[in-house]
């Protein structure tokens, strides 16, 4: 589980907490184990459904696109009256790296 804290940026006073959100990072790492080389760009590897254990506002797809694994998410903020945050995760293979 990944926990995200959202603050506003104030110049002359302390930053204000805008809320927090959590999401499951496991499916993203699981998708990295798939044999991705040779897949067509736009291939959906996983679909992550919103549920009570995550803050997803809508279904999120983990997609292989242009040589990168990408997940776009819209997360509902918790511990605040209302609000959402858009987030994108990307995994980019770097030549010479050992990966996970």
Automatic annotation (TrEMBL):
InterPro entries per the UniProt record, alphabetical: CAR1-11 (IPR044562)
| Gene Ontology molecular function terms on file | GTPase activator activity; lipid binding; metal ion binding
**Compartmental location:** Membrane
Q: One GO cellular component term, please give it.
A: membrane
Task: Report keywords, A-Z.
Answer: Calcium, GTPase activation, Lipid-binding, Membrane, Metal-binding
The source's superkingdom equals Eukaryota
Main location per the UniProt record: membrane
PANTHER family, alphabetically? Answer: PROTEIN C2-DOMAIN ABA-RELATED 1-LIKE, PROTEIN C2-DOMAIN ABA-RELATED 4
Under which name does UniProt file this protein?
A: Protein C2-DOMAIN ABA-RELATED 4-like
Its source organism is: Juglans regia
């Amino acid at each position: 589980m990944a926990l995200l804290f959202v603050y506003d940026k104030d110049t002359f006073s302390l930053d204000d907490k805008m809320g927090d959100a959590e999401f499951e990072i496991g499916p993203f790492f699981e998708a990295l184990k798939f044999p991705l080389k040779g897949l067509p760009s736009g291939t959906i590897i996983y679909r992550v459904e919103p549920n009570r254990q995550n803050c997803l506002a809508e279904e999120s797809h983990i997609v292989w696109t242009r040589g990168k694994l990408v997940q776009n998410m819209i997360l509902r903020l918790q511990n605040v009256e209302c609000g959402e945050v858009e987030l994108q995760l990307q995994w980019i293979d770097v030549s010479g790296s050992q990966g996970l």
